[in-house]
């Protein structure tokens, strides 16, 4: 039944994503060394690549241009990306070949071309492919290990259109670029003996002070329609905040860590102002606590102009909708005060802090916001063609808010109305955030298959 199939996938997602389980986790990776004659030796431990993790895909490339193939490993579990540099001192000779099609009878990337290399000791063959394994693509520069051979007797390229190019008597330990249709044995010899990527001994990164649990969102979450009532304007929303980084600080009068954190903010007001950060204290004691909350903030020395509160409706929407989106069920991250939400200048949620946050941590995060390129990471890539999908499932967020509205006591209750309004907002965001084709750094719409 279709329902059983869908339910099975839901159960799988809960087990793998929310509970952190895996079908193939904590299994050591294996590396096999070919010794000729279709025989292999397990060298996993010698290469130090036998790490325990939930590996997904690998790609081979000559990262540092030394003629030795290196490996990038992508995993589901942390560390998500591992780099294994080939540091073998007694490496044999090599030849690396880059192909460029003519762009008319063959594609410019020369995908589908075959290269045959003949030496005095061996005949080698490789094909140029677009992608291999699971969601991975190795370097387009084909690497041939030549062993002790110092020359290539013949190199033969069969292009995707069926034509061939033949070159003879080539030196080993070269990076060659071959363009379809060019005359001469080799169009260009690439000098990668001094790679642009240099190896440096970097100091250990300094740990940010403080014991705050800090959750950085991989993809920012717009929060424009969320209600954050102020004592002066009970209808205030995130979209009404100034266009600057904002820290929404949730606190209670009976919470000692909350009062201590607010006191630190007050003592460091000049530093916070220099950051360009606006702090918005929101008491969880509700609108009825206006007098006592305002008096407490004034006694501590925190400005009350932007202060406000979360009533039952705003609390349910912020914690039941947004907080749950960031912390899925069974993530074992209970809500506690103080909790703070760092928003960028566009009202997007970027970081959540559980517990008092130190000024050093806050300053580093705000500085990162100002230095970040506002364009998506993929849009900054200048070469090639990519199909880009938006990352966050806004439709699922809309459904979560609809569920909150349905749980309200009455359809006409403030909670139900607000939840439906916010759900409609995220549906609009979902419909406007379409995928696109990125060609050489420029966005292009995906063609409609119906046209």
List the helices and strands and how they pair.
Layout (H helix, E strand, L loop, with lengths): L1 H17 L8 E2 L3 E5 L2 E4 L1 H4 L4 E2 L1 E7 L8 E6 L5 E4 L8 E8 L13 E5 L4 E5 L14 E6 L3 E8 L5 E8 L2 E6 L8 E3 L22 E10 L23 E6 L4 H12 L1 H7 L2 E6 L6 H11 L7 E2 L2 H15 L12 E5 L4 E7 L4 H13 L13 E4 L5 H13 L7 H19 L3 E4 L2 E3 L7
Parallel strand pairs: 8-14, 17-18, 18-19
Antiparallel strand pairs: 1-4, 2-3, 5-6, 6-7, 8-11, 9-10, 9-12, 12-13, 14-15, 16-21, 17-20, 20-21, 22-23, 23-24
Helix pairs in contact: 6-8, 6-9, 8-9
Tell me what the structure shows.
This protein is α+β, with helices and mostly antiparallel strands and 451 residues long. The protein has 2 domains: 34-190, no CATH class; 213-372, Glutaredoxin (3-Layer(aba) Sandwich), CATH 3.40.30. It has 9 helices and 24 strands. The strands form 7 sheets. A 6-stranded mixed beta sheet has the order 16-21-20-17-18-19, with helices on one face. The chain has a 4-stranded mixed beta sheet with strand order 11-8-14-15, with no helix packed on it. It is elongated, with a radius of gyration of 29 Å. The two termini are 34 Å apart. Residues 205-212 and 377-382 have low confidence and may be disordered.
